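job 3f2a | input accepted
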Amino acid sequence: MMISLVLPAGHTIRSLRHEDLADVHAIECSSQEHPWTVAQFEAELDNPVAAIDVYFVDQAVAGFICSWLIAGELQIQNIATAASWRRRGVAGRLLERVLERSFSTGLQSAWLEVRASNQSAVALYRRYGFAEHDRRPNYYHDGEDALVMCLLADHHGE
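job 3f2a | predicted structure (158 res):
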């Protein structure tokens, strides 16, 4: 199944470049209690299975998503939206872009972990067909559980 992503005027999505690292890292630091380091983002740039897509509104970074695609399995590693752009469709459009690209190369399944308490993120993933597959107790540094969510390509859109 293909997704048809249309972005509003002035909005673009493209691959992360080194000159984007400071802005992407700032969003990461404002979004996560235990953020990735700049070195971790740089390592993803060198990782042949990784893709980091960056969402721009005009020239400003509004969000990013890091994913891995390995043998038909997509793994969402990290996603964050700038505070001023939350609840305005940025994360959904980033997810759509990654799914669209992955479906075009034979996606079989997509996986991610999300804090059990992050109901807005859980709702976003459910809108795109993800379902809870498992729970990882005490997964995060603060002891919170992670939900493991999965999207099977066969069931996308059903």
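job 3f2a | Strands lie at 11-15, 50-57, 60-70, 73-81, 109-115, 131-136, 146-152.
job 3f2a | closed
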